[in-house]
Amino acid sequence: MPLNRIAPIFSLEVIRAAEYVVEALKKDIITRDDIRKIKNQPMSKKPYPKFRVIAIYDNGGKTLDRYTVYYNFVESRPNEPKRYMCLGMNAAPFHPQGIGQHSSGQLGRHNGKRIKLEDLPLDCQQAVKNDLASD
Fold it and tell me: What is the pTM of this model?
């Protein structure tokens, strides 16, 4: 089965790299020891930007995920509109029947009215604080 059917969320470059490794293993071009060496190499020391809130929206209850909090991580590709990591939630994101889901989206009026962190319900404020503490 092609990798792009198994993992549609990965970029085309990642899928091609994985397919190359699979084919190389089949042809004995590289060994499992080579892959272990690559896997055990330390990752880049480049620091990630500090996780912070860039916008908070309230759509007034038009959707179940009434509140949307956008963070400073861009998840879009070059030549596409910027999509930021976000947390969509209702007033009870920790409740078993509540909504609290990370996603990506675009900033703008389509999200509703811009509000401040203090305007969010207390549980929503706690969800944002949990995200910010996960740095």
Answer: 0.64
